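Re-running the complex after MR caught last week's input typo. The corrected sequence lines follow. Everything else is unchanged.
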Amino acid sequence: MSTETLGPGTAPPTMEVVGMRKRFGVLVALDDVSLALTPGSFHAILGENGAGKSTLVKCLMGYHRPDAGRIFVDGRERVVANPREAHALGLGMVYQHFTLVPSMTAAENLLLGLPDLSPILRWNEARARIDAFMRQMPFRIDLDRPASTLAAGEKQKLEIFKQLFLGSRILILDEPTTVLTPDEADQILGVMRDMTRQERLTVVIITHKFREVLEFAQEVTVLRAGRRVGGGPVRDLGRDDLVRMMIGSTALAEPAPRLPTPQRAPLLELRGLVARNDRGVGAIRGASLTVHEGEIVGVAGVSGNGQRELVEVLAGQRALESGEIRIHGVVYSGTRLDRLRHRVSILTEEPLRNACVRSMSVEENLAFCNFDQPANTILGRFVSRRAIRDQARDLIDRFRIRTQSPAARLDTLSGGNVQRLVLARELSGDVAILIAQNPCAGLDFAATAEIRGRIMSARNAGATVLLISEDLDEILELADRIVVMFEGRIVYETPRDRADVHVIGHAMASHV
Amino acid sequence: MLARSSAETATISAAALLLSLALFGGFVALRGLNPLEVYSALFAGAFGNWFAIQYTLTQAAPLMLTGLCTAIPARAGLLVIGGEGALVMGGVATVLAGAGLTGVPALLGIPILCLAGAAGGGLWIGAAGALRQWRGVNETIATLLLNYIAIAVMNHLVSGPIRDFSQVLKPASWPIPEHLRLGDMPGTSIHWGLAAGILVCLLAWVLMRKTTFGFAVDVLGGNVRAAQLVGLPIARIVLTATVLAGAAAGLAGAFEVVAVHGFASASLAVGFGYTGILVAFLARQSPLGVILVSILLGGISASGGLLQRHFGLPDAATLVLRGILFVVVLASNTVYGRFRLFQGRAV
Amino acid sequence: MQAPTELGWWGVPIAVVGGTIRVSTPYLFVSLGETLTEKGGRINLGLEGTLVMGAMSAYATAYATGSPWLGVLVAGTVGALLGLLHGLACNLPRVNDIAVGIALFLLGTGLAFYLGKPYIEPVAPQLPSLALGAWSAYPQIRAALEINPLFFIGVALAPLMRWGLGNTRCGLIVRTVGDNADAARTLGYSVERVRALGTMAGGFLAGIGGSFLSLYYPGTWNEGLSSGQGLMAVTLVIFARWNPVACFYVSLLFGGATALGPALQSVGITANYYLYGAAPYALTLALLIWSSSTKHALVGAPSELTISK
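Corrected-run output:
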């Protein structure tokens, strides 16, 4: 497999998948899925979370052994037993989570994947190869900086470059634009499309975004619950067709109607916040924002611009270097007492990782916020197991958490139920301020709709919401007012009715 | 690090013990000994007669406290291995306090000595907790270094500034006042440190399993991000846990002075602290388990003499058994959660 | 002209220099070994036990066979085996490498004391040294410049390891495994195997460091031979930011700190002997405090290391 040229005359192979099946225990991840890739095509695999997209490509890449199914490359049947064999066939994959080694330079990262590395590395030769290959690419990457210093968009380009350098002719991209601004996303997808038009490459993107399918892909395969439910040339399909195929006949929970609210007093004020991230680098650099009573303010932005650190500051997990947060004019420091006093609730992303303890029971997890409240203790110091049990039963009921029993360990719950548990814990009381960070990440449509509905209900009931999300669609759906966070500052603001996606997108990438 | 189902814990711990004994048996077989004879000697030396049982319990007494020194912080997510240093500093503090208590009646003086020991140990490990909390220093390496520093400081003090020159066998400190010495529990030749150890473990159990503090520790030890998210006072929890841990080991040091030797010397640093680490792990960080496991390990230590007399095995043989046990116990952690028999319930 | 016999106070720095070179050698070997292990993402606190086992096995072998160099080789092998045990135990899911290190520290020390009982009295042949100070008339300088070849091997090993980590395939793989294990798996490397091998190699070097203790300086075998040097070497790696060449310089620093006490003793200052003995530990703790921070991970730490997560 030549890595030197990707010119015409070296067209990518054809690939066909027939009848693939895969189960994990009782879960059927793939059920009789078939797919055909013509050389030089731009193929999208569309489906919501949990539809089987990742499983399908992992089987193609040799990570999983399918229970049934055949793969044909250039007409010959092949068995892909591991990633190395996949690479040998010309398959390459760019993941959502980068596979770059942080402390190594871009050049070292590129070298790493080469299958023919000699025991003593021949750097001069390797460097010459890399430079020559780089000249054929429509983008440039600084090869001598450690990967950890690259921005998300640059890392993405490096990953793509790496796969191409290693000889991939069929490139699979898993949700490639999640960490990119709309402009960066367009740029990358545009480059990929050009390369497929030149028949240098076959591109498969996994996505749940219709826009990407409709604007860039030539062919689409739609998966739902592990089955192929539709597909074909994109020009023959419209958005509605895709939506119908993707979510089938399940009626979506209608988002709660938005009650009109008059302009109210400022409630939550962020003034000139400055904070550093885990590496000691400035993450928040003077962010200021005012949130009014009863409104949802959506903070849009690409991941890595200080949003995570902002939530950590609000949750008391990170110290401020300067600036202050005030609620009703009173300084707020994120301590447990402060949060109780001001009735602040926080919904983080990845609840299992950030908000729960796997080895503790459901009832105990539900009591994290109030186990030391007088109502739940005996003599103020001893935990009242009965009070905690009663509270758990009530919340399990009201929020429809599916669990064997209140005493079951948390890790017996499914992902959606864990998120429900955290919702129950945070939204069950009288919430004045809700801070939500990527609350629906990784969840399927039904769970997502449910959670967005609850956020809207909370707002309608008078709560003030600060929604920090990397999903622009989510913000556009929920927010009364939209701001953009870029490089640690709030750089743009617009009310909902004047919101323009392109303008917001530009702000996410640079100053407007 | 919460205890899972008790049945699972007990079964896997017992299996670990059996496997370790089997490996140890293989080890002594290499020397030409019959493993079965060695096992029976181990048992006889530990529990064979009342004399042996008493010796076992005497060995177990400090282990209950040094076991807590690792177990309590472990529940909060910290791996503290400073029991040896805390015990030594506790002993030194006891002797220093004793110097000022010559006229004080025993009813008051002995508790003061115990408090002094606890304070000495508590400050020592609490310092490591503070370093971890405010400076991000890894507590395992820090407490291990503090062990060596404590022993060096103790050696320095007992060879010089607080030395009792009338002791010719080896350097030793001034003795504590004679009337403040605690003897053995009535009817036995086991010192009061055993009662203290059991009592403190029971109190620790109540604290860690029944109070809001214990609940907060469980959350912190289970997921530090979750603890931060719900606003738990992490600095306070870490500091309290490390001070309590050090106080327990320091108390063991106090009892070594008050009830065993009467003075401080290098005899304080005989490995109770290190064995305590193993106690905590084998007991899976449960204070009640610590009581039982201390007796088990006390038995192993106690039988060392018998092994030496009967088989010529150097007393380092029990060190080897303990080392094997430690490695096996740690490796057995991988087995939890794999057997369907025990799944589904939280403790 | 009278042959000079008294250097007066100059004796102290000269003794320190000689002591530094001598005492730093085991630190050098252990820290280089641990650097390799930690670059792969494992921390092995059990090297103290490996050091002691290495010392004992070297002594026993040298005594039994008459060849100290064979003793060095056996010590390395024993160290590699202990490293393998650490690697295999830590490869099991949910087993914590810091705890395993402590367990191996206790097991290694116990095994060494147990197996080494018969060798406390006998005298084993020592490793030779190169008399690089033969040009001097002063016995102190001659003594200070008696240097063991192992020191030079260690000195050569440091830059070699640094070069190797950046310029060999093995080096690249080790660094990948230690910095992004998922990336390594994606590339088809067995993370467990690389880490076990890395820990073995680290153990091998630590074992050799141990042989230096029993076969050169202090040159005997007894149960008080090492106290904490293995642990200090692990901490030294943090301070050296996982750079093998920096390990060399920091080893010299530690060697100097440890040699200070005996050097002062040699000119008659015997007070506060134990406090001087505490100096290296205190230095280690101070350096650890200095290197740590709550605001950011340890600088230069491989991302997969337990202590940097």
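None of the earlier attempt is carried over here. The longest strand of chain A covers residues 27-37. Chain A has a mean pLDDT of 85.
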